[in-house]
Design goal:
Layout lengths: L45 H9 L5 H26 L1
Helix pairs in contact: 1-2
Length: 86
């Protein structure tokens, strides 16, 4: 069952030299390059990156402060619920 579809070899994360004729290896170049299309800082990943992409904060540090406040709020609510119902 061949439909004539061909796929390129996946080279993500590989940086291997290719061997030229004559047995010498060619200089290597990065296979991919990180592009940042205006969605914040490259090191901003996960929830910090999400907050930056949504435009709620501008910096990674601001996003971390928001997440820390969210964790503190959740802990306080949990304590109140546990003491009220138990």
């Amino acid at each position: 069952m061949s439909s004539g579809v061909e796929f390129e070899e996946d080279t993500f994360g590989r940086n291997r030299p290719t061997v030229q004729s004559g047995g010498q290896s060619a200089p290597t170049s990065p296979q991919y390059q990180y592009s940042n299309p205006g969605y914040g800082q490259p090191e901003a990943t996960g929830m910090t990156g999400w907050l930056i992409r949504r435009g709620w904060v501008q910096t990674r540090e601001g996003a971390q402060k928001i997440l820390l406040a969210l964790v503190a709020f959740n802990i306080i609510v949990t304590i109140i619920v546990v003491t009220y119902f138990l």
